[in-house]
Write a structure and sequence with these properties.
Blueprint lengths: L1 E9 L3 H15 L4 E7 L5 H8 L4 E5 L4 H10 L4 E7 L3 E2 L5 H10 L3 E10 L14 E3 L5 E3 L2 E2 L2 E2 L10 E3 L6 E5 H6 L12 H11 L3 E12 L10 H18 L2 H24 L4 H17 L4 H9 L14 H6 L6 H4 L2
Parallel strand pairs: 1-2, 1-4, 2-3, 6-13
Antiparallel strand pairs: 4-12, 5-13, 6-12, 7-8, 9-10, 11-13
Length: 340
């Protein structure tokens, strides 16, 4: 069994592989085996891997499974103590792996961790999707240590302490193989978006811990597959977020949160139309809520099992405040301000 397998899921990302894979291979030498799992690309990805990166192991998937199930299918073919799920648009740094491995070896109670994630475009700032680890407010809105909604902070070392988090970014996620399969991996039905939050939350419910280890730092392009303003991304984010809440919220909070989200999601949709001028995103929210209602009961057994596995019935896994209220009315735009 390998100690560490770095697995990069690729779909039509030849340009990203050409640019960022060399540093991954360089700094993994002697520490990890690097795999690229190809999600049925129709660009020159496989040719590039064969010709330019023969030392990289390739897993060829027969169709585009999406991010979530794509990783499940790929990791079935890899036997390792630790998996490191890594986006193809990540630029790694020298020595980035060892702090993550050392931390996991020293903390067996921890299921997964992430490095500090900075933006490639603005190298002194955190990256939107990962920053220094993620949390969720009481109504299910994700945010990061270093990013609240659209407000991304500069990194001045303010979050450089190892810290327990609710979720680690799927852009660079180190996870124990036993824990990954213990909860059944990523939920393939999500296709993409919110799938790593769902995975980490399920692990937390079972009593496992998630951490950010800022001594390790990487840089992320972000939005490599879907641009930030994209109706499909809006649809997946809203549908999957609601589904995750249905699966993971404790019984005493479920109905209240779902009623609040019914109202707030439609407020968000009308804002997208009337303020932002994005009619396709407006309709994406309506389609997402319809899709959630249509498939919600497919997750009834998941919810029953997750609640049965709850390690501590009284543990609050979500932050006790409303992020929307704190951001828009309290004018709190940083993680430190939220927790002051």
């Amino acid at each position: 069994m390998e100690q560490l397998a770095i697995v990069i899921l690729n779909w039509n990302g030849a340009s990203m592989l050409a640019k960022y894979l060399p540093s991954v291979l360089k700094y993994a030498e002697g520490v990890a085996t690097v795999y690229v799992a190809d999600n049925a690309s129709d660009d020159e990805s496989l040719q590039l891997l064969a010709e330019k990166f023969p030392s990289c192991k390739t897993i060829v998937l027969e169709k585009n499974w999406g991010f979530a199930q794509g990783y499940n299918e790929a990791l079935k073919k890899v036997t390792a103590r630790y998996y490191l799920l890594l986006n193809s648009d990540i630029e790694v740094t020298e020595g980035w792996l060892q702090p993550l491995l050392d931390f996991m070896e020293a903390h067996p109670e921890v299921a997964a961790c992430q490095p500090k994630i900075r933006s490639i475009a603005h190298r002194d700032s955190f990256e939107y999707a990962g920053a220094c680890g993620g949390y969720i407010d009481r109504l299910g809105y994700p945010y990061c240590k270093g990013r609240i909604f659209e407000n991304v902070e500069k990194d001045s070392g303010q979050y450089d302490q190892e810290a327990e988090i609710l979720w680690a970014s799927g852009a660079a996620l180190l996870i124990r193989g036993t824990d990954y399969w213990r909860v059944g991996g990523l939920d393939g039905r999500f296709f993409a978006h919110n799938e790593e939050i769902d995975l980490c939350w399920r692990l937390r419910i079972m009593g496992r811990k998630i951490y950010c280890v800022p001594a390790s730092c990487v840089y992320h392009v972000g939005g490599g597959t879907l641009p930030k303003k994209n109706p499909m991304k809006t649809y997946l984010n809203f549908r999957n977020n609601l589904t995750m809440l249905y699966k993971c919220l404790p019984e005493k909070e479920l109905n209240h949160v779902m009623r609040a989200r019914w109202f707030l999601d439609y407020v968000a949709a009308w804002k997208m139309l009337l303020v932002d001028g994005h009619p396709r995103d407006f309709w994406a929210v309506f389609r997402a809520r319809h899709a959630f209602r249509k498939w919600k009961h497919q997750f009834d057994e998941d919810r029953r099992q997750i609640q049965h596995n709850r390690h501590n019935e009284e543990e609050r896994l979500t932050s006790p405040f409303s992020l929307l209220w704190q951001y828009h009315f309290g004018r709190k735009r940083t993680y430190a301000a939220l927790n002051a």
